[in-house]
Amino acid sequence: MSLFYNGEASKYLSQFCAKELPLPSTTNILQHFGMKIEITNQDLLHSFMVYLVLPIFLFNLMTVWMVPFLLRVFPNKRQQTLLLSKDKKVFELNQRLIRGFLASSIAIHSAYYTFFSKSDPIPGANYILVSSSFFHLSDTIILYLYRSSDKTMVVHHLIVIILSWVLMIVRKSLSVAIVASTNDILVPISTILSWLYSYNLQNTFFNLFCSVLSVLILVFYRMPSNTYLAYTIIGKSDYSIYPVALLLAGIVFLEIKWARSLIKICMKNFNVLLYSKKVK
């Protein structure tokens, strides 16, 4: 697969295995539950603590100190900060901030295993999948904790969680996970956009730049890569991995919806900035 061009891991995973991978020779906690997934207990525990326990802990901690911190650091935005606190919007900002950092971590790990790693690719791919599933589970729990109304994000998270475990249990096409997980690079940008909107900075050139960049990543990277991967899976005669293609199709549908919304926002911001420039 042309998306992979360097490293033993990428060469191996790019073959898009048509037969089941050999079972791991080592045992771990998951194998006691009938899931023969090649990942060490140490990596499993690390993934659990960093991507599931830590985000929930940080969210609860940030609900206590974030508002006082913002009031102290941005005294000129005091009224807006108090309004965000009153409307409980600050909970969403906390959630997005945590999600942005963790998603960046997963994206960096995925890019490393895709393009640079020369180690055994299977444990690395499984670590990314386990981490991604824990990360999306913790984010779903946080969405529930502050009673988020964003149902599409919950649906997206559930799809990713199921997709991650299907890939590991079926033990085929792990290259899908490597490419798909690099898509999380969009999350930090959406975090920046959320903070800009919350502080009424949406009609700025920086906001327009971030919005356009988000559209470009969605339209020219995330959607094509997920569509191509789904198409590749459908082209295989192995029906056991067809659910992966269906899940990817669901993600592409959500990405089309988000891209349309972002394009409308970009056009609106551009018109406002253009009008304000003409007035001056």
Automatic annotation (TrEMBL):
Membrane as UniProt keyword: yes
- Keyword set includes Transmembrane: yes
- Which keywords does UniProt give here? Membrane, Transmembrane, Transmembrane helix
Q: Where are the transmembrane segments?
A: 48-75, 96-115, 127-146, 153-170, 176-197, 204-221, 241-259
Q: What is this protein called?
A: TLC domain-containing protein
Source species of the chain: Heterostelium pallidum (strain ATCC 26659 / Pp 5 / PN500)
